[in-house]
Amino acid sequence: MFEPITTDLYRVPIPVPLPLKYVNCYLLKADHGWVVIDTGMRYAQAEQTWQATFEQLGIAWSQIKQIIVTHYHPDHYGMAGWMAERSGASVWMSPIEIQSVQRAWYQPLPDAADHLADFFELHGMPNDLNRQIWQHTMDASQYVDPKPLLQTLDMTQPLQLGQRSWQLLHAPGHADGQLCLYDAADQLLIVADHVLADITPNISLWPEAKRDPLADYLASLNEFAALDVRLALAGHRKPIMAFRERCHEIAQHHDQRLDLMQQYASTGKTAFEVCEFAFGVTTLSAHQLRFAITETLAHLVYLEGQGRLQREQRARQIIFLDQH
């Protein structure tokens, strides 16, 4: 159920109703009590897992003093309010991600779903698939309840928790303001979803997020590869031992994906057509398709920014094609 990483740090896999099956959350012993890093999605099985974990470790709810959420996605943020209500703990995020929470979870959900559907239609998504994604977006709010009061982390200052001094690192790409925690003395990195062991993190372009998330991600990945990391604790799957090598592998993956997408789109394609080519769509769930199309868009916009593709609007759709 949970795994000790060090004497003061536990990895707690929390089940999520997604293909990934689990999100890795972390429990850190501090002088004032316990700190939870990421929380999971709010549903019964996740609640039961947290209850059982605290019972087995002999942790009372009142001993949870602080909750740190690395980014706004529901598998990391979703249970923060539930946990804060039971423990009285404060909930902390980076300033950029607090803005992301406001955008994702506080505007009327039908408006957000409609806005996203319009965005996908512009990029060639067929109506039947777009409707499935619309419903999936509407369903997401059940996993994010209640919404906690958020406090802002000072990203310029180290965070002292117990015997460890953590640098707070901005890790854009997967989420605009994603936060990682780095203990340089122990060469230990809580890397969230910035780098994963055996899958590549999803880098998506959303209507109101940063203009070129893949450019941000690749630049950040290069900076992270320079860190001395003995062990990286990721948001999904297993811990990463050879961290620098994994950073280079992910960068190489994106280089190859960019070349393939540029070649395919050169004659003029919508993002959905490129998505079909790169990912296939017949076997994807609405959840997976939503991330596939937005990841495709992140790559196409990166290619546009590099001068390798351009866009044209034809009728009511955007086409990507070679520069003339």
From TrEMBL:
Pfam families: B_lactamase-like_C, Lactamase_B. SUPFAM superfamilies: Metallo-hydrolase/oxidoreductase. Residues 22-236 form the Metallo-beta-lactamase domain. This is Beta-lactamase domain protein.
